């Protein structure tokens, strides 16, 4: 997901308390478990902000394991919530749900451009969306949000753990998706476990840094922006 951080005054403390309570309630519904069966379709989603006041969310669906593009949709809407650090998913999730509702072919699992449980309160955008949609999700992020790790080796497929700096809890894994590029941060979301998240990410690599579901979601976001400008 797009890490758009508009300038402005500090967030309203009452809003932060409310969002925290909502996150903790959503977290209570979170389930980390292997997929019941191998997926036939895998989704990818991404959001961006064409302007400070609008959001564009894209869903693509690919056949798995061929990764042939089956469907692509988007939702474009006004932004309804200010940016609050650590609560970006509330700014994006509603519009992503609207994009998901337009799909004719629902995916068996969704790869989200963002974090799953690799979040201070274990509810990044991938986990948040999984609970809202009640579908298996996991996150593949380009930047670390939370946790500590050792840099993985320089070769495609090299992996190191991402852990909570205080408790040592495994939050995700740091993956070198292509030789000598910056690593990705893979974490389970909802109804998906870490082993499955990493396995599917590796299975979706096709020579680019980003795996195909999120790479194509990002690609189509740029194309769809031309329609809404």
Structure description:
An 8-stranded mixed sheet has the order 3-2-1-4-5-8-7-6, sandwiched between helices. The protein contains 5 helices and 8 strands. It is globular and about 45 Å long. The two termini are 20 Å apart. The model has no long low-confidence stretch (mean pLDDT 94). Strand 7 (170-175) and strand 8 (184-190) form a beta hairpin. It has a single domain, classed as 2-Layer Sandwich (archaeoglobus fulgidus dsm 4304 fold). Helix 2 (88-101) crosses helix 3 (125-133). The longest helix has 17 residues, at 212-228. With 229 residues, it is of the alpha+beta class. Its cofactor is Mg(2+). DNA repair enzyme involved in the repair of deaminated bases. Selectively cleaves double-stranded DNA at the second phosphodiester bond 3' to a deoxyinosine leaving behind the intact lesion on the nicked DNA. GO terms for molecular function: deoxyribonuclease V activity; magnesium ion binding; RNA endonuclease activity producing 5'-phosphomonoesters, hydrolytic mechanism; single-stranded RNA binding. It is an enzyme of class 3 (hydrolase). Mg(2+) binds at residues 46, 113.
């Amino acid at each position: 997901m797009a890490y758009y951080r508009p300038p402005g005054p500090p967030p309203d403390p009452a809003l932060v308390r409310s969002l925290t309570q909502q996150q903790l309630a959503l977290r209570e519904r979170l389930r980390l478990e292997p997929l019941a069966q191998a997926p036939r379709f895998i989704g990818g989603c991404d959001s961006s902000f064409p302007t400070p006041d609008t959001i564009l969310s894209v869903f693509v669906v690919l056949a798995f394991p061929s990764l042939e593009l089956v469907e692509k949709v988007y939702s474009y809407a006004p932004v309804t919530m200010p940016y609050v650090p650590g609560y970006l998913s509330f700014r994006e999730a509603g519009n992503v749900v609207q994009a998901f509702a337009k799909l004719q072919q629902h995916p068996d699992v969704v790869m989200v451009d963002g974090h799953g449980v690799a979040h201070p309160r274990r509810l990044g955008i991938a986990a948040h969306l999984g609970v809202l949609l009640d579908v298996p999700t996991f996150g593949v992020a380009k930047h670390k949000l939370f946790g500590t790790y050792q840099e993985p080796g320089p070769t495609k497929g090299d992996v190191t753990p991402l852990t909570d700096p205080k408790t040592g809890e495994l939050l995700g894994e740091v993956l070198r998706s292509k030789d000598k590029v910056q690593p990705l941060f893979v974490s389970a979301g909802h109804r998906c476990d870490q082993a499955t998240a990493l396995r599917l990410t590796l299975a979706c690599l096709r020579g680019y840094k980003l795996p195909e579901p999120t790479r194509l979601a990002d690609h189509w976001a740029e194309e769809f922006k031309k329609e809404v400008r």
